Input
Amino acid sequence: MSQRDPIIVKRQYATDEKLRLRHDTHARYTLPKKDFIEWAIKMLNLRGDEQVLDVGSGPGLYYTRLHELYPNTRYVGIDLVPAMLEGHGQHNDSDYSLACADVGKLPFADGQFDIVMANHMLYHVENIEEAVAEMRRVLKPGGLLMAATNSQNTMQEMQILMRRAIVLLTRQGAAMVRPPSLPSDHFSLENGTRLLSRHFNAVVRYDLPGHLAFKEVDPPIAYLESSRELREMMLPSDVQWDDVMMIMRQQIGQLIKHMGELMISKLPGLLIATDRGGFIKTYMDQFDPLEVEE
Output
């Protein structure tokens, strides 16, 4: 099994509890304070009447903020796990719909959407190339794909602490030990840029650096426990997850005691891709002055 195995992914997202815990942890403990979802949506520079597909929408965190900022957008949210869609609640809006669907086989016509969002989810997909090709297919010629993810260099302090815990527990030599990779490493800001560039004429990357500041032990431990299914399988065969967490608790407690807080740097961001819209529309129109469908 791998972090992208459908069984593991469905187990991790059987409910929206763990996803909400991670989202709430970032919202509560990130400095400087910045609403990532609002920042991401505003980077699209929307008119306000676009048709938006939210792939892997989860409980609708992006829909809530999108509707607040641009109430006239037409929204379709899909997710592979039906239970995740239940978090959206009830909406009596004719321009709002939900469906259980696979990003690798989108049930939509070619060129249907102005915007496709795939936020912190592509790294869970088994065949990312297939998924990107499908999202490009359902975009209008001047449409935008927005994919939120993390840098491969995010949360390095936490990774160092986890590696140290594993080294203390395993019989393998320290040189052989690597901390369990972050799920987002499969589609990060770095390799995601290269992947999207194989499908779109232009890709732009936006970073939002910050850090998590923890003054108590329980929040970072709960954050790690929320992704147990995705990381436990990557431990050495002679190391148990609960033992790793015991040592992590000790290390974090000592750091908070001596430093006053645990600081974890983070680097989330956006990749926005297009063939001829948004940030490259004027440039592309120089080569093809024919009117492009909006």
